[in-house]
Structure formats: C-alpha cells, structure tokens
Amino acid sequence: RQHMARGLPKQKPIAGVKEVIVVASGKGGVGKSTTAVNLALGLMANDQSKSVGLLDADVYGPSIPKLMNLKGNPELTDKNLMRPLVNFGIPCMSMGFLVEEVAPIVWRGLMVMSAIEKLIRQVDWGNLDYLVIDMPPGTGDVQLSITQNIPIAGAVIVSTPQDIALLDARRGAEMFRKVNVPVLGLVQNMSVFQCPKCSHQTHIFGSDGAKELAQTLGVEMLGDIPLHLNIRETSDKGQPVVVSSPDSPEVSESLTRKPRP
Ligand code: ADP
Fold it and tell me: Where is this region: Disordered (predicted)?
C-alpha cells in the first residue's frame, strides 16, 4: 500500500541482480533447500562465467548456513549494506547469519515480511546473473508478497511423488500463475530408493506423481532425484552433492534433460 501511495511501481528489481529464480514447495521436508543449493551450484558449474547468489527466505527454518557450511555475522559495507557470506563461490544471505541457531523465531506476519525485505535489499549482492531464492514452504502471505515485491524470472517447484505433497505443489504452481510468475518446471525428489546391498529399487513415496502433475500443469519435468544416502550425508556436512560428487549417478541421473556433451 505504501508503494502505491508513493506512486512507485509495486515490483522493484534487486540492485545488481539480473534474474531471480525461486525454489518453492507446497510442503516442508520435501528437499526444497537441498534443491535450491544444488541448483545454484549447478548453474555456476554449468557456466563458470555466470555469477550466482543464494538467498534463504525460509526465515523460520533457515537451512542455507548448514547446507553451505557457513556461519558468522555479515559485515556492513560503507553504504550500510550487509556483505553476503561466501562459500563455493556463491554469496549467501540467511536469517541464520543474524540470529542464534537455537533461538526460536516467533514473529508476526508483518515482521517476517520486513525481515525478508532486509535480507533481499539491504545486501551488497554485487553483480549477479542469477539469484536463487529458497522460499519458505507453502503458499501463504509471505510467499505471495515475495512474488509481488520483486520481479521473478521463474519458479522451480519441488515435490515428492506422494499425493499429499503433490496437492500442495499444485497449489504452489497455481499461486505463481496467478501472479504471472512463469513456472519453469517441477523437480521430483525422493522418488526411488535403491538398496545399497541388493540394488532392489523401492518407490517409497510413489514413482511418477510429479511427472503426471507436470503433464497436467503443462510444465517441464526438470529433474528426478533419487532418495540417496550420499545426498543426505553431503547436505549435512555442508558439502553439497553437486560439488562433492558431481559425477555420481545420483547427480548425473537426476537431470531429466541431460547437459550437452
Ligand atoms: P525442505 O527444504 O523441503 O524442508 P530439505 O532440503 O531441508 O527440505 O530436506 C529435508 C531433509 O531430507 C534433509 O535432511 C535433506 O538432507 C534430506 N534430503 C533431501 N533430499 C534428499 C534426497 N534426494 N536423498 C536423501 N536425502 C534427502
């Protein structure tokens, strides 16, 4: 309302950032943050000339500090902007850099929005080709105001193949469409588990749910990621699988569209 009152356009680009890609999910725990981190690293690995940043907008449960093996408080620049913390060549910003790890974050909606606004705009991002935003899970006010406040090039939606997760993923896709954010596609996560002892494959959450949803929505299936111990372990160690095991099958076979040789 304030913007409107001042007669400014509602969506304001982030200084220095060319394209914003949001990674969203309907539910928590489906692998959204893991995907966001590996997407950012993958974008950079794919083309070293591109600069990529990562913003953790999941202010209630910030996981980027752990996933990117970063901690500490951002320094302030002489323009009073926060300097992102950097690992693997990716500048990152997260509420986790500003509050104690175990402190409960009990906030009202408006405070959450103003915190996210600060994490987005009071940061010296430098010049970025892509800023990947790890969104909070769900389709509430916060998600909606992020999509309304900044111009977004596209959204990547992560879901497990389980019906209940898919239903929420669909809601997510519809939210983005309503606010004219292109849905770049769906990533199906945790679709198959291969027993390391006997190689038997089990579809713990179902097998093709996200593929079917992608068809229904008319969007691309961007990836199909197995449930794999190495993904969990590398994430917990802050050594994302795309950088620590780039040639492993759990990475190379996850992409539905294979990179050109
Ligand atoms: P979200 O951001 O949706 O809450 P996370 O990315 O934090 O989900 O993932 C939740 C948990 O599942 C983390 O412990 C993560 O390491 C693990 N995880 C995510 N994807 C996979 C996968 N494909 N294989 C194994 N573990 C995974």
Answer: 236-261
